[in-house]
UniProtKB/TrEMBL annotation:
Designated name of the protein: Phosphate ABC transporter substrate-binding protein (PhoT family)
Region (Disordered): 27-54
Subunit (UniProt): The complex is composed of two ATP-binding proteins (PstB), two transmembrane proteins (PstC and PstA) and a solute-binding protein (PstS).
Organism annotation: Faecalicatena orotica
Domain PBP: 49-175, 198-309
Taxon lineage: Bacteria, Bacillati, Bacillota, Clostridia, Lachnospirales
Mode of membrane association: Lipid-anchor
């Protein structure tokens, strides 16, 4: 009997020992799982951080774009070969054919860099400082932000379209220039109140996609004063704007740059309707907030390939 009791006691002790060991294993497994979960969270957080070792995605505009022409000139991304200027933009650059596509492309890529008209800038991307100056209309006007260019319209000498002429008078009036200023561009000084003649008929305006947004606002404002006029806006590029003004396809051509000597020699008369900055843009997740002019040049000529080559 005593032996049976001893065996039973020993069995009980063994069962308790196993139970205690099992509880200990369960506790350790739970702690390990918690530790692994924390590690995974840290890995995910680390993965979401902007990494300067990544390649730079360079985004540029198409040939013929006035914004591209002004950009490469202002940042020295061109070389002179006699009277010819050679665009040195790297062949690795992605090419976009409009301001809206440029904004979307940069907004969708954390390591992208691009450029747009300051007046077209929206909150889908961020504009970086250039040489320490913020890209604002006030800084363009004061000369602190030096990356700027004129917005031009051009007509063929001897223009006889009364609607086009009246519309140009509106653009260059106090009322027209207030529209320019309201849309974050630099207005022309010393303008007078509009004195229109309210002609009826149609005029075609076309060219630069950078000038197009403010031109659309100018057309809306003019139509309120002269509903009998039909103004058709075609958004293409600066070069097309000038060639189409020469051949008569457009009554008014738009260019987001100075006119070339060859264009002026073909009988075009240019008028500056506003001054615009060019904003260098990056994805909002980027850690880069300030670039020098030389850094921008090194990126667009392909000298710098990764972000840590630029910012470190």
């Amino acid at each position: 009997m005593k032996m049976k009791k001893l065996i039973a006691a020993l069995s009980m002790v063994s069962m308790l020992a196993v139970a205690v060991t099992g509880c200990g294993s369960s506790k350790d497994t739970s702690a390990d799982a918690s530790s692994d979960a924390n590690a995974d969270t840290k890995t995910e957080q680390s993965g979401s951080e902007w990494d300067s070792s990544n390649d730079i995605t360079i985004v540029s505009r198409e040939d013929g774009s006035g914004t591209r022409g002004a950009f490469i000139e202002l940042f020295g991304i061109e070389e002179k070969n006699g009277d010819e200027k050679i665009d040195m933009t790297t062949e690795e650059a992605q090419i976009t054919n409009s301001t809206s596509v440029m904004l979307t492309t940069v907004a969708d890529n954390e390591y992208a860099i691009g450029y747009v008209s300051l007046g077209s800038l929206d909150d889908s991307v961020k504009a970086v400082k250039i040489d320490g100056a913020e890209a604002t209309a006030e800084n363009v006007k004061s000369g602190t932000y030096k990356v700027s260019r004129p917005f031009n319209i051009a007509v063929k000498e001897g223009l006889d379209n009364e609607v086009a002429k009246d519309f140009i008078n509106f653009i260059m009036s106090e009322e027209g220039q207030s529209v320019v200023e309201e849309n974050h561009y630099i207005a022309i000084d010393d303008v007078k109140p509009f004195e229109g003649t309210s002609p009826s008929g149609k005029a075609v305006i076309g060219g630069s996609s950078s000038v197009s947004p403010v031109m659309e606002k100018l057309i809306e404002a003019y139509n309120k004063l002269n509903p009998g006029a039909e103004l058709e806006l075609q958004t293409t590029d600066s070069t097309t704007g000038m060639t189409s003004a020469v051949d008569g396809s457009y009554d008014i051509g738009m260019a987001s740059r100075e006119l070339k000597d060859t264009e002026l020699s073909e009988g075009l008369q240019a008028t500056v309707i506003a001054t615009d900055g060019i904003a260098v843009i990056m994805n909002k997740n980027s850690s880069v907030d300030n670039l020098s002019s030389e850094q921008v040049k090194s990126i667009y000529t392909g000298e710098a390939l990764t972000w840590d080559e630029v910012i470190e």
